Amino acid sequence: MHKNFVEELRWRGMLHDITPETEDYLNQNTTSGYIGFDPTADSLHIGSLVQIMILIHFQKAGHRPIALVGGATGMIGDPSGKSDERNLLDAKTLDNNLKGISSQLQKFLDFNEENPVSAQLVNNLEWMKDYTLIDFSRDIGKHLTVNYMMAKDSVKKRLGSEAKEGMSFTEFTYQLLQGYDFLHLYQQMDCKVQMGGSDQWGNITTGTELIRRKLKGKAFAITCPLITKADGTKFGKTEGGNVWLDKNRTSPYKFYQYWLNASDEDAEKFIKIFTLLEQTAIIDLILQHNENPHQRLLQKTIAQEVTRMVHSKEELQKAIQASEILFGKATAEALKNLERQTFLEVFEGVPQAEISMAELDQGIDMIALLASKTQFLSSNGEARRALKENSISVNKAKVDENYSIGANDLIDGKYVLLQRGKKNYFIVEVMA
Questions:
Q1: CA gap 107, 55 in Å, rounded
Q2: What number is the average pLDDT over the span 8-28?
Q3: Greatest CA separation found in the chain?
Q4: Cβ contacts of residue 192 below 8 Å, gap of 6+?
Q5: How large a percentage of the chain has pLDDT more than 70?
Q6: Which residue from 215, 189, 197, 208 is spatially nearest to 21, judged by alpha carbons?
């Protein structure tokens, strides 16, 4: 007996459109289904995580997930939801992006060949690269009318009276190319289902229609809603741009913080979409959260679950420790173990001053470090008073006026964190 995949999506708020008979078919058969990922960057972002979660649920329900990377379609660019023509990628950039995305996808799905529904990773460039325009026009193009293609929302929006640029023939052909992907996978891998975001409905149903007209076959389509935030701001965006799955683009600390800062309303939605917790556990967490919302139980659970899944248990622990530093719960040792990027992110906006390594090697007394060398405190007298009051810390450890800064105090070989009281921070950067 299959787990009801469609019902799983439905209660999680991940179901938008579905073709007739899809649910019955999936409940009665083991099949393959795919989602396409366009290689617009060398990393996926958390918007793509919705699609990844769908593939994970698909596999858990006893079906074979296929992740398609668009080596061919990525050369053109999907017009869905776009008001302007996209800049085309060069071959080198595209290849780099494909490698990055492919390696990420393999972290989330079970590709073990011993699994009867082991995941598959495919690249549509493999079947498109040698396909000539003449062959494509004869074999594929003749099965769909221009009228049918013009009726799609992604086309209508770009050709309407309010459109600025119109649509190139290149982008107009995109839905036909995506439709051919579905046809190819239907024939070669017995793939009966295509899934994606609600903005993909037109492209996906072009595939089901092509399969019907050319092969007299039956295929199915499922889409999920596009994720929105309660405050109207765009999901997956911060002031610094996208929240990426690659730790070099978005550090695990910032990634963790993004989920931690979710509103209560968003958190209730996100915990269903972005975690694999079961329904009973989620309902219980929501009830507990509503009793004591100030404890932010939902946000903490989401942040932990998603950071662990995307990065690792170890990276999660580092992110938690980094988060606790600001609230005075972390040790001096935890602070010293921070990577440079994370340290600077934790203390973003904190005032800084520079000293030389030569000065450090000669030894700098605390009063000079606090006052004349950095201007953290306004005078030697203020520095002396603060030290006598026991309100000065170096790297979270209390010090007195006899303390001398040395190389062993450096965080990542470069920084010293000064602190007065609980919230008054200052960074000293040691230059070579």
A1: 12
A2: 96
A3: 88
A4: 25, 29, 31, 32, 33, 186, 218, 219, 220
A5: 95
A6: 208
Q: Are 104 and 171 in contact (CB under 8 A)?
A: no
Average pLDDT over residues 94-99: 90
Torsion-angle region of residue 349: left (phi > 0), alpha (psi -120 to 50) or beta?
left
Q: Is residue 84 scored above 60 in pLDDT?
A: no
User: What pLDDT is recorded for position 1?
Assistant: 46
Average pLDDT, the chain: 90
Provide the pLDDT confidence category of residue 244 given band limits of 50, 70 and 90.
very high
Task: Quickly tell me which residue has 């979409």 as its tokens.
Answer: 273
**Topology (CATH) of 345-431:** 3.10.290
| Nearby residues of 198 by Cβ (< 8 Å), 6 or more positions away | 16, 17, 223, 224, 225, 226
Gap between the Cα atoms of 16 and 2, Å rounded: 22
Domain borders along the chain are 5-224, 237-325, 345-431
Written as one string, the DSSP assignment of 409-422 is: G-BTTTEEEEEETT
Residue spans of alpha helices (H) in 160-249? 169-172, 174-189, 201-215
- CATH classification number, 237-325, choose in 3.30.390.50, 1.10.3490.10, 1.10.240.10, 3.40.50.10260: 1.10.240.10
CB 273 within 8 A of CB 14: yes
CATH number of this structure's domain 5-224, picked from the four choices 3.20.20.70, 1.10.3720.10, 3.90.180.10, 3.40.50.620: 3.40.50.620
The answer to whether 272 touches 11, Cβ cutoff 8 Å, is yes
Q: What average pLDDT does the segment 62-79 reach?
A: 85
Q: How many helices (H) and strands (E) does the chain have?
A: 21, 15
**Three-class DSSP category at 376:** coil
**DSSP summary character for residue 109:** S
Pair of tokens at residue 284: 């219980």
Nearest to 46 by CA among 122, 104, 106, 98: 104
Tokens describing residue 249: 């683009």
Q: Is 198 helix (H, G, I), strand (E, B) or coil?
A: helix
pLDDT at 279 over 90: yes
* Rounded Cα gap, residues 247 and 264, in angstroms: 26
Q: Which ranges of 216-263 does DSSP label H, i.e. alpha helix?
A: 252-260
Model's pTM, two decimal places? 0.87
SS3 2: coil
Residue of higher predicted confidence among 401 and 74? 401
